[in-house]
C-alpha cells in the first residue's frame, strides 16, 4: 500500500519550506505568484491532500464554518445549506449547522455554547437570525467574521442579497396582466426583512396598476405550510374572495393550493396562486407554482465565499447582489369570466 504524501514531501519537491507550502494552501498573502504556482503544481502532481487537523494547528484556525438558522422552511434552508457546503468544499473547509432559538437571551446563550465547543472560523447567518440585534452585537463583540444572507441593512456588511421588493412588484404586475384586480397577499414572519420588502412590492404593484389597497386582502403568515393553510382559509372563507393570491413564499403558496382543493376551487381556473423562492415544493404541487426564482443555493455559496475571503484577507469581503426572475407555471391564469 502506497504511503500517504506528506507536506514535507511537497516542500522538498517544490524546493520551498513547509511554512511556504502551508501559506499557499491556506491562501495567505506574501507569497510570490511564481512560488505559489510551483507549489500548487506539485500538490496536484503528487495528489497531496492536506490533513485538516494539521492545517488547523499550523494556521491557528479550525477550518470550520457554522451555518446559523431559525427558519421554518426546510426547502429554503436546504438550498442555502447546499450552497454553503459547496463553497466550503471548494476551499477545503468543513461546515456545521447551528440551530438557534429565536428568544434573544437563549439565542446568544446557544451561540456562545457553539463557539466555545466548536470554535468556527466564521459564521453564515440566514433570515431571520441575520437581523437579530443581540446576536449581531455578540458577533462584533467577539470579532467573529460573519456573512449575512438577505439582511435588512446592507451597508458595511459581508454577504449577499436580492431586490425582493422589485421581485414582488414584478409578480403582482404579472397577475395584473392576466386581468386580476382582487389580488390577496399572505405576508411572512414579522421579524424577517423579506416580509417587509415583499409586502412593499405588493403594495407598489397595486399602486402602479391603480388598484386600491385593501387591508382585508393581506393576511399574516409565518413562512410555513400550516400558516399558509390558515391564511388561505381566512381569505377564501369570505363573501368576496380574491381571484389571485400571492404568498410570500412557496411553502405558504402550497398551503393555499391545498385549501383551494379542499373547497372545490380549481387552480388556476377559479383562483390563481403564486409564491416566492422557487424552492423544490413549487414543482411538487399540482399544478406547479408560478413563483419568483430566488437563487438560494447561489446565495449560500456566494455568501460563504465572501466570508472565506474576509477571513483570509480581513476587509476584502463584499455585499453582493443577485438577480431574480419570474418562474411562470400553471398555477396562474387569466381571471375567471
TrEMBL record:
Pfam family, any one: Peripla_BP_3
Keyword Transcription regulation found: yes
SMART domains (alphabetical): HTH_LACI
Protein name as catalogued: LacI family transcriptional regulator
Xref: SUPFAM superfamilies: lambda repressor-like DNA-binding domains (SSF47413), Periplasmic binding protein-like I (SSF53822)
One term of GO molecular function: DNA-binding transcription factor activity
Signal peptide: none
Keywords, ordered alphabetically: DNA-binding, Transcription, Transcription regulation
CDD domains, alphabetized: HTH_LacI (cd01392), PBP1_SalR (cd01545)
Sequence ranges assigned to domain HTH lacI-type in this UniProt record: 5-59
Taxonomic classification: Bacteria, Pseudomonadati, Pseudomonadota, Gammaproteobacteria, Lysobacterales
